[in-house]
């Protein structure tokens, strides 16, 4: 119900920006009408997801942020929460047309992971679970709003009439968004078709089975495919990728990239235009300075929350669970990289006067770093956080 609400809200926001205006209403009245409809539906969807979190918490006996499905769903929840706050402050309709789809993508991405409620492993049996993960997710939700506003600024200001470095990087950024969308679509397709391919993998003299739910482009090393009538792997994962699930996670990442590139190619062939050119009419009436301020304010709000959740609370929990505050685990390293990047963003903006396009690019790149942490590090690199 939350997902449906967010989709309907996005449609309402898009209608507010691009729909035909009634003859008896001014453009401002039309925009306000559909904007408030979109906002109201977003709040209803948010309340449904609040109910989902509470009921899953009761059913599982722990706060629902213990695996990738629960965390990505909560990240979507945090993005919508940040959007509601920003919308009530600025009352700019078009931001809903950019932020709501980000929340939808995150919630849809969550749905590709196993949704069963499982008992917590010993390392997660702590009250720090809900403190550390929720504050980190809320901070990242604010970063997502900053990303959406930064993307709006670039679409609004980057000249699309000629090919420049900025236009190429902007297209690459939009293509990355399509990679998530394409992956969600392909995963849903194969899941609905009931696709499964089973591999037998020898591990320390014991044969273990690994089940793929998508065709295997990257197969497990030294594995035997036992399912008949399915696609054989194109190649085996390298030996340095340890763990039974490493190959399956790499396969997931490859499907994300390929599906996004195919989707991007189809759109370009059908429209003969850059993606930024297609969506630019949505933001042409917005003052760039206002978008720039929204992006900065969202990141300024999210940064101290992320600092508490992803670093301070995480180190306290690590000391309790593993006996050390810091261990250079891949997830810890990328959390530090994310924090350093946003710290540099605030320093350059406040001390060096990096506003406008420079600031927008930093906001966009910062959230890409967040997504690398959430997608690549979680799905490919093996570490102490691989249970997620």
Question: What do you see in this structure?
Answer:
- The chain is mainly alpha-helical.
- 67% of the residues lie in helices and 5% in strands.
- The chain contains eleven helices and five strands.
- It has helices at residues 2-18, 27-60, 68-90, 94-110, 128-157, 165-192, 246-271, 275-279, 288-322, 330-351, 357-379; strands at 197-203, 206-212, 218-219, 224-225, 235-236.
- Strands 2-1-4 form a three-stranded antiparallel beta sheet, with no helix packed on it. A two-stranded parallel sheet has the order 3-5.
- A hairpin with a 2-residue loop joins strand 1 (197-203) and strand 2 (206-212).
- Helix 1 packs antiparallel against helix 4 (94-110).
- The longest helix is centred in the C-terminal third of the chain and has 35 residues, at 288-322.
- The radius of gyration is 22 Å and the shape is globular.
- The protein starts with a helix and ends in a 9-residue tail after the last helix.
- 40% of the residues are buried.
- The model is unreliable at 21-30 (pLDDT under 50).
């Amino acid at each position: 119900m939350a997902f449906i609400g967010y989709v309907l809200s996005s449609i309402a926001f898009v209608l507010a920006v691009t729909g035909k205006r009634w003859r008896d209403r001014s453009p401002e009245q039309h925009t306000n009408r559909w904007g408030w409809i979109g906002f109201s539906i977003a709040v209803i969807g948010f309340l449904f997801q609040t109910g989902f979190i509470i009921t899953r918490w009761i059913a599982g006996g722990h706060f629902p942020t213990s695996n990738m499905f629960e965390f990505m769903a909560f990240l979507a929840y945090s993005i919508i929460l940040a959007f509601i706050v920003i919308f009530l402050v600025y009352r700019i309709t078009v931001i809903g047309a950019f932020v709501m789809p980000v929340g939808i993508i995150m919630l849809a991405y969550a749905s590709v992971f196993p949704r069963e409620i499982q008992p917590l492993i010993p390392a997660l049996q702590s009250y720090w679970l809900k403190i550390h993960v929720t504050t980190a997710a809320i901070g990242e939700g604010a970063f997502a709003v900053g990303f959406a506003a930064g993307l709006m600024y670039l679409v609004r200001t980057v000249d699309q009439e000629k090919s420049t470095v900025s236009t190429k990087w902007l297209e690459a950024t939009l293509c990355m968004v399509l990679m998530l969308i394409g992956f969600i679509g392909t995963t849903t397709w194969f899941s609905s078709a009931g696709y499964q391919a089973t591999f037998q993998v020898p591990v320390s003299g014991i044969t273990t089975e690994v089940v793929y739910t998508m065709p295997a482009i990257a197969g497990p090393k030294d594995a035997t495919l036992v399912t008949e009538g399915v696609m054989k792997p194109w190649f085996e994962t390298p030996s340095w990728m340890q763990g039974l699930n490493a190959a399956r996670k790499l396969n997931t990442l490859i499907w994300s990239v390929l599906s996004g590139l195919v989707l991007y190619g189809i759109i370009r062939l059908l429209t003969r235009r850059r993606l930024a050119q297609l969506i630019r009419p949505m933001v042409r009436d917005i003052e760039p300075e206002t978008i720039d301020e929204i992006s900065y304010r969202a990141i300024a709000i999210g940064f101290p929350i992320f600092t508490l959740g992803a670093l301070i609370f995480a180190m306290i929990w690590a000391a309790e669970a593993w006996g050390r505050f810091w261990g250079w685990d891949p997830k810890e390293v990328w959390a530090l990289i994310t924090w350093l990047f946003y710290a540099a963003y605030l320093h350059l903006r406040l001390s060096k006067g990096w506003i406008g396009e420079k600031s927008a690019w930093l906001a966009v790149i910062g959230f890409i770093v967040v997504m690398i942490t959430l997608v690549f590090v979680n799905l490919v690199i093996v570490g102490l956080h691989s249970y997620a």
